[in-house]
Amino acid sequence: MNMAPTSAPAQEPRWLTDEEQRVWRSYIEAATLLEDHLDRQLQRDAGMPHIYYGLLVKLAESPRRRLRMTELARYAKITRSRLSHAVARLEKNGWVRREDCPSDKRGQFAVLTDEGYEVLRRTAPGHVAAVRQAVFERLSPAQQKSLGEIMRIIAEGLQPSEAGADLPWLR
Fold it and tell me: What is the CA radius of gyration of the chain?
């Protein structure tokens, strides 16, 4: 349903066509259901939400299993305060620890502990199976390639590369 404003502006918005509306709503529904599906699987298997799993994966892939907190926030696309809360929860579980940055008194590293690495190692097979079942087994190889290209175009368009871009994870 198009929600036309009650007082007409100088220039009428370019409303979504019926087909664009169908595509948009399908995307929203699928993204919401997929995130819920992955959250439930990770809560059941490891007692953590999907976003925490992503943080552990990024740390595991980083040299010496450590990354500056600002870089981790940028990767996760979350504010530094939300990241700080997430890392505090992961620290409480013994999966991550913080270390001060020797070259920057204000900077900190998040470091994946051996216990965190073990949780990730145990959890990864179930998570990969959930992703495969929810996404890749439903799409042909051509559809998978198209989906990847489409998502890359959208992501690149939403991440300005110029200095001073007003993005929450850069604040």
Answer: 20
Pairing mode of beta strands 66-68, 104-112: antiparallel
One DSSP character per residue, 69-107 reads HHHHHHHHT--HHHHHHHHHHHHHTTSEEEEEETTEEEE
Query: pLDDT digits over 55-114, tens only?
Result: 999 999 999 999 999 899 989 988 888 999 999 999 999 999 999 988 777 789 999 999
12 neighbors 97 (Cβ within 8 angstroms): no
Question: Residue 104 is which amino acid?
Answer: D
Model pTM? 0.83
14 phi/psi in degrees, rounded to 5: -85, 90
Tokens 């699987």 label which residue? 41
Q: Which residues of 133-146 are buried (b: 16+ CB within 10 A; e: fewer)?
A: eebeeeeeeeeeee
Residue 49 carries which DSSP code? -
Helices (H), the chain: 18-46, 50-61, 69-76, 80-92, 114-134, 141-158
Residue 2 DSSP SS3? coil
